[in-house]
Specification:
Elements lengths: L2 H24 L24 E3 L4 E6 L13 E7 L4 E5 L6 E7 L2 E7 L11 E7 L4 E4 L4 E5 L7 E7 L10 H6 L7 H8 L3 H11 L1
Antiparallel strand pairs: 1-2, 2-3, 3-10, 4-9, 5-8, 5-10, 6-7, 6-9
The chain binds 2-acetamido-2-deoxy-beta-D-glucopyranose (2 copies).
Length: about 210
């Protein structure tokens, strides 16, 4: 073997081992069969939701690495959402997570928006939307503005959402982020961004504060 190649291969082995061991040392759960604790892989309680979100008519049950330690090394989490009649998860974004929505009960309107490029400032964004009935599945790509909404006035609805990330968090809702800021975002900036007049802006700000 040429010395250069031998050196490269040795370097490669050292570097790949450093990578392997640095990941292994971060792994929360021992894969050594004698040390595996079944409870690190197990969770329960997703038969119900108990975390009502103020003002939006949805209760959540989040099963992430806080409840199942093995999820730390799996890049996944699952959330159950129970929607009141007309309840929904308002427009928001998960910057680092795809979201797989599985309809379980009732019907849920889901959708995400694909914006135009900057070169076409007057074109319309594409609205990708479906109504999910029990057994239907919809994927929301990471980084897309999206929503989930029960449009039924009389019936509640339920969905499971599976996230491709361990650090699931209740996402900042775009409306609240903009209209309930401290210090407030200047009306002139909101007017420029959303083409709302001052009265409408003040009205919306009041509803969020
Ligand atoms: C959910 O399941 C648990 C058992 O894991 C049970 O004790 C509880 O009563 C169930 N709750 C509902 C609302 O079905
Ligand atoms: C919802 O409930 C209202 C009042 O009880 C009733 O008039 C209406 O027909 C119901 N709508 C549906 C879709 O069931």
């Amino acid at each position: 073997m040429e010395p250069n190649i031998a050196i490269s291969m040795t370097m490669y082995l050292i570097i790949s081992n450093i990578f392997l061991y640095s990941f292994a040392s971060e792994a929360p759960v021992h894969e050594d069969s004698k040390l595996v604790n079944p409870n690190d892989y197990f969770g329960s309680g997703i038969n119900t939701s108990d975390l009502p979100q103020p003002g939006v008519g949805v209760s959540l049950n989040i099963i992430d690495a806080n409840k199942i330690p093995a999820l730390k090394s799996s890049s996944m989490s699952i959330v159950r959402g129970d929607f009141d009649p007309l309840g929904g998860v308002p427009i928001h974004i998960h910057p680092h997570s795809n979201e797989l929505v599985v309809g379980l009960k009732g019907s849920i309107h889901v959708g995400f928006l694909v914006p135009c490029s900057l070169e076409q400032p007057t074109c319309k964004s594409q609205h990708v939307t479906k109504i999910l009935n029990p057994g239907d599945v919809f994927i929301i790509p990471e980084g897309r503005i999206h929503y989930l909404q029960n449009m039924d006035r009389n019936a509640s609805a339920t969905a499971f959402t599976i996230f491709s990330n361990i650090d699931f968090f209740i996402p900042p809702l775009i409306g609240r982020t903009i209209f309930a800021a401290d210090p407030p975002v200047d009306d002139r900036i909101i007017e420029n961004s959303f083409r709302l007049d001052k009265t409408a802006i003040e009205d919306v700000k009041m509803k969020f504060n």
